[in-house]
Amino acid sequence: MSPTQHFLLIHHRGGNSTEVRPFGEDEQAALDAYEAAELAHMDDEDYKVLLVGAESEEAMRVTHASYFCLGTDRLDVIELSLGV
After folding, report:
1. Does residue 11 contact residue 48 with C-beta atoms inside 8 Å?
2. Nearest Cα to Cα of residue 54 among 78, 30, 75
3. Which of 2, 45, 46, 80 has a CA that sits 20 to 30 A from residue 14's CA?
């Protein structure tokens, strides 16, 4: 099993885009960046900030596909997540 990789996701609902900031195995740097991003966007409902741990960026993009499959319907996202 691979060590957990940490990713900060900043999703802009209005702009329909997601910024990915990888932190590798540096959990403390990821937590610090998460806290800063939460503070920066706490009054803006157009943004959603997530801190995600996964084996790889590819795995994270599958488990959180709804943030990356913008403009597709929910069935497409489910099929992508299942590898269909």
Report:
1. yes
2. 30
3. 80
List pLDDT tens digits, range 14-35.
878 899 999 999 999 999 999 9
Of 62, 63, 64, 59, the C-alpha closest to 49 is 64
Strand order in the sheet with 17-24: 17-24, 5-12, 47-54
Q: What is the CA 51 to chain-centroid distance, rounded?
A: 7
Q: What phi and psi, each to the nearest 5 degrees, are found at residue 53? A: -110, 135
Here the tokens at position 2 are 């691979």
Question: Residues 20, 57: contact at Cβ < 8 Å?
Answer: yes
pLDDT of residue 76: 55
Query: How far, in Å, CA of 46 to CA of 82, rounded?
Result: 28
Q: List the chain residues with pLDDT less than 50.
A: none
**Residues in the chain, overall count:** 84
